[in-house]
Amino acid sequence: MSSVSKVFVARLVGLAVLGPDGESIGRVRDVVISVRITTQQPRALGLAVELTTRRRIFVPMLRVTSVESHAVTLNTGTVSLRRLHIRPGEALAVGQVLDSRVRVDDPDLADLADQDVTVVDLGIERTRTRDWVVSRVAVRSGRKGLRRRGETHVVEWARVHGLTQTALNLPGQGVAQALSQFEGMRAADVAHALRELPTKRRDEIAAALDDERLADVLQELPPDDQKDLLSNLPRDRAVDVLEAMDPDDAADLLGELPDTEAESLLERMDPLESEPVRRLLTHSPDTAGGLMTSEPIIVTASTTVAETLARVRDPDITPAAASLAFVVRPPTATPTGKYLGCVHLQALLREPPANIVGGILDTDLAHLHPEDSLETMTRYFATYNLVCGPVVDDEGHLLGAVSVDDLLDELLPRDWRETEPEDTGEIPIVDGLTPTGGGRRLGDRR
């Protein structure tokens, strides 16, 4: 299939990126372009490529050998593993430029004169010098009559005005195209993508996400980014998002804020939502009481295996938290009645659905105490080969459960989401994808 020299950036998103031997490297997620003060055509500098590890890196357009309907192929060389970083004067085509407002002066589109239109795509083409430049802009006019949306027109770049860095920094830009990228993505991957965007664009996208989705994404951001994003939300919206977060994650975030601000938010929250968060805040953040979730899977001894498995299947429960169900006497809200024991997921799968969990209790498994340290928790999980463990107080009440993902989050450096060990490494794309330590770095812009 022949390579193309002209393509719209939205068509590139999702295409496989292949090395010269056909080895898959990742997928295109965006195109980095230069945004100039002058009317000169912006250059397409490179591709934002998402590796199989979900890391996004920059691949220069000079490394692109061919663009076909199914894939983008790179030439011989090495690709830097440095995480994608947008520099001053640059922008992500899909993440930042699409949905912006411009004006056109095309004589063939006289009806669009003196009115704002929305950018819906950018056409790029390769020049004789092998550079790629933005040559065309697809725009959509406002709705007319009974039409649900306006018509789409393709305009030459020279006829478009207002697509500048200053304009991109103005408020009120749409987010439809940017949000379409995030459909079906895990919250952690959306968080990575948001971190690549300027604060203004990130806040616009955050404002458009529903409370549950934003809460999930917020939980995957580094603490400093969490605080910044939350502080830029309207106060009532910030409260709604905190209520949608898991209590332990909400407690972690509030623990990063000044006491007066945290208390102000807690007072606005629904008492049923704020009460477990307040309890978690009474514990030191590096103890079992500070790391635990107050909402593990809790059932009574008379609950059937079928009912318990139905709880385990809840997609909002992490795999670690779903590995154990905790059995207590009523009440089942934490702090519960007397803790009786736990039931392992494997045991549930081996039992007839009509049986009750009281007959398959593991009463011998040791439990954690709320004041237990990080070392104690680490030894506990290693000793019993668990990924989740109960936290019980001196009176025998279940307070919550610690899962290994929360423990790892605390053990790793505070900025582990921002820096990774292989940030400065490189991968060859000549003989497969085996990492090497050498090679000329091709990740820099010219």
In short:
The chain is of the alpha+beta class and 446 residues long. It is built from 17 helices and 20 strands. Residues 416-446 are annotated as: Disordered.
Task: Note down, in words, how this protein is organized.
It is a single chain. 30% of the residues lie in helices and 23% in strands. It is an alpha+beta fold and 446 residues long. The protein folds into four domains: 6-93, SH3 type barrels; 94-168; 179-285, Alpha Horseshoe (MgtE N-terminal fold); 298-411, CBS-domain (Roll). The strands form four sheets. Strands 1, 2, 3, 4, 5, 6, 7, 9, 10, 11, 12, 13 and 14 form a 13-stranded mixed beta sheet that branches. The protein has a three-stranded mixed beta sheet with strand order 15-16-17. Helix 10 crosses helix 12 (271-281).
Task: Provide the structure class.
Answer: alpha+beta
Q: Report, as a whole number of angstroms, the end-to-end distance.
A: 30 Å
The biggest sheet, with number of strands, parallel, antiparallel or mixed sense and barrel status, is: 13 strands, mixed
Quote the CATH topology of the largest domain: CBS-domain
Name of the top-level CATH class of the largest domain: Alpha Beta
How is the quaternary structure best described? single chain
pLDDT average, as an integer? 88
How large is the share of residues in beta strands? 15-25%
Poorly predicted ranges (pLDDT <50, ≥5 residues)? 429-444
Number of strands: 20
What is the count of distinct domains?
4
- The percent range for helix content is 25-40%
Task: Tell me which CATH architecture of the largest domain applies here.
Answer: Roll
H/I helix tally: 17
